[in-house]
């Protein structure tokens, strides 16, 4: 019943950090406590985060809510129209139905219709996968394959220490000739390996955009992370990071998302293990670190075959 209410109200779960479970009794662990907000709050506080603190003398752990507000007004952010929407056969029908709907009780009907149309376009986008990026199943290649000319390839990976739960992500960006553009390694705190993968995807796309690249391939060896982006599933501990990734995908550029074999993702895997637990600012590698030179040479040799 409550899940139906969350769905109907279109509430979103705030991203979390810390222990996955919020309630403990004996050997039983469950997550009973949640923080939810609506779309308006999500836009005002896109970096909102809930930390699960340690339980002290009580079955439930305290929740610390942190919501830094971005500068500027959320309503001033432009709405990006995605050209790929038009390619779906139901697009014209959706626009027509939304625009012709009669709600004369509203004084400013045109503005309302535009806002409602935007909202439904976003739902349509997520449901039909009609945004401007292609998706590919695992290609089975056992080695790294360079992107087409004028494209860049961003490889990402996440790692997690099973002893203490600290996770990190790594990402490397290379061009069509296999040239190194930039690499990163960053700690993301205590979270699941899936969340670390998603942080790697977000950071990888963000840095490709900042480099001025407008044609990018994102590769991950995580089937779960790949499916989350393609299907836009809300069943993840930190849906906020999914929102950040989707916001990047809305921008005016071409992005292909691929699921690859782990053997083809060795560079990102190695980078993810380089971040120390407290290095939240991250490490930037403008040149390849020595620890991965042999992998780069191996990739280069395979390119020449």
UniProtKB/TrEMBL annotation:
Residues 155-275 form the RNase H type-1 domain. InterPro entries: RNase_H-like, RNase_H-like_dom_plant, RNaseH-like_sf, RNaseH_domain, RNaseH_sf. It holds the Pfam family RVT_3. GO terms for molecular function: nucleic acid binding; RNA-DNA hybrid ribonuclease activity. PANTHER family: OS05G0353850 PROTEIN (PTHR47723), POLYNUCLEOTIDYL TRANSFERASE, RIBONUCLEASE H-LIKE SUPERFAMILY PROTEIN (PTHR47723:SF19). This is RNase H type-1 domain-containing protein. It comes from Hibiscus syriacus (Rose of Sharon). The lineage of its organism: Eukaryota, Viridiplantae, Streptophyta, Embryophyta, Tracheophyta.
């Amino acid at each position: 019943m409550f899940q139906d209410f969350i769905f109907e109200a279109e509430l979103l779960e705030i991203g979390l950090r810390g222990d996955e479970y919020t309630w403990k009794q004996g050997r039983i662990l469950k997550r009973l406590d949640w923080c939810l907000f609506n779309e308006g709050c999500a836009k005002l506080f896109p970096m909102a985060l809930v930390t699960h603190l340690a339980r002290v003398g009580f079955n439930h752990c305290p929740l610390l809510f942190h919501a830094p507000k971005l500068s500027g007004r959320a309503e001033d952010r432009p709405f990006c129209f995605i050209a790929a929407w038009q390619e779906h056969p139901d697009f014209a029908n959706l626009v027509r139905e939304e625009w012709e709907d009669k709600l004369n009780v509203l004084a400013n009907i045109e503005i309302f219709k535009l806002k409602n149309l935007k909202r439904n376009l976003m739902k349509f986008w997520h449901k039909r996968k009609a945004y401007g990026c292609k998706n590919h199943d695992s290609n089975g290649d056992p080695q790294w394959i360079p992107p087409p000319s004028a494209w860049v390839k961003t490889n990402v990976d996440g790692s997690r220490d099973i002893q203490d739960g600290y996770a990190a992500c790594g990402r490397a960006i290379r061009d069509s000739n296999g040239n190194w553009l930039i690499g990163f390694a960053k700690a993301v705190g205590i979270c699941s390996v899936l969340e670390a993968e998603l942080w790697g995807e977000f950071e990888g796309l963000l840095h490709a955009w900042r480099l001025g690249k407008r044609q990018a391939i994102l590769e991950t060896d995580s089937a779960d992370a790949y499916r989350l982006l393609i299907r836009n599933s809300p069943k993840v501990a930190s849906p906020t990071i999914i929102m950040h990734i989707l916001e990047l995908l809305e921008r005016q550029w071409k992005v292909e998302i691929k699921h690859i074999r782990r053997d083809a993702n060795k560079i990102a895997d190695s980078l993810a293990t380089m971040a120390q637990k407290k290095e939240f600012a991250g490490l930037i590698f403008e040149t390849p670190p020595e620890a991965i030179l042999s992998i780069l040479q191996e990739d280069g040799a395979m390119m020449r075959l």
